[in-house]
């Protein structure tokens, strides 16, 4: 069993953890919004996709950990996702007649970019929660992966698409590597949680954006 203890600057890390989750929720919510725009969904459909994308992975993780999902206990993440959807979709709806067919292509790119940001943040959040629950290396990898890709899988299934994780690029592999690195850097190298999260965020984000730009994928 892994004994995980926050260091002396735990309060600073808690603030950092909250901010990382805040940005991650917005990023995943935006990817849900643009997925809805891609399929020409209405306001409810877009908002629902924003919610499930941003909190779906966390809900799946908490259920597996035999806990009441944090999104249901403290629904501020859901409120943030709803606010993000409304702020993004309403201007689009108002000016929609002025858009041409390129808006769908733009929406697809925004889905990928914001999904990359959310993935890069949530993979560390999931790994951190797994550490707090004293999971082993495999458990940490699984929890970090579920937290970061679970919402996107639900989003794509609701949009009647094959999830990104199964077809389009090197997606889940990044989560596996990042989950392992988080455990190794925190437990074995004794690097602080904030530094570890920042390093993993930029490494995963840069690789993910390169994969998107080069349209790389695993062998088929």
Automatic annotation (TrEMBL):
Pfam families the record matches: Gly_transporter
Main location: membrane
Chain ranges of the Glycine transporter domain: 19-89, 113-183
Annotated keywords: Cell membrane, Membrane, Transmembrane, Transmembrane helix
Cellular component annotations (GO), alphabetically ordered: plasma membrane
Transmembrane segments: 16-34, 46-66, 78-95, 107-131, 137-158, 170-187, 193-211
Compartment(s) where it occurs, according to its Swiss-Prot or TrEMBL record: Cell membrane
Protein name (Swiss-Prot/TrEMBL): Trimeric intracellular cation channel family protein
Family designation: Belongs to the UPF0126 family.
Species for this entry: Streptobacillus felis
Lipid bilayer topology: Multi-pass membrane protein
């Amino acid at each position: 069993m892994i004994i995980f203890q926050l260091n002396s600057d735990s309060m600073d890390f808690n603030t950092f953890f909250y901010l990382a989750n805040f940005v991650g929720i917005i990023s995943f919510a935006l990817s849900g919004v643009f997925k809805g725009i891609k399929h020409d969904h209405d306001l409810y459909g877009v908002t629902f996709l924003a919610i499930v994308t941003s909190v779906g992975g966390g809900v799946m993780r908490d259920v597996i950990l035999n806990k009441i999902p944090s999104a249901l206990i403290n629904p501020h993440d859901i409120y943030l996702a709803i606010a993000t959807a409304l702020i993004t979709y309403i201007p689009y709806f108002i000016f929609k007649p002025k858009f041409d067919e390129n808006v769908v292509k733009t929406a697809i790119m925004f889905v990928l970019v914001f999904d990359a940001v959310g993935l890069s943040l949530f993979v560390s959040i999931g790994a951190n929660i797994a550490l707090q629950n004293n999971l082993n290396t495999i458990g940490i990898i699984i929890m970090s992966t579920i937290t970061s890709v679970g919402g996107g899988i639900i989003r794509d299934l609701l949009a009647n698409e094959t999830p990104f994780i199964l077809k389009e690029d090197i997606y889940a592999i990044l989560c596996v590597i990042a989950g392992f690195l988080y455990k190794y850097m925190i437990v074995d190298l004794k690097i602080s949680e904030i530094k570890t999260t920042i390093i993993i965020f930029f490494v995963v984000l840069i690789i993910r954006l390169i994969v998107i730009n080069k349209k790389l994928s695993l062998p088929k």
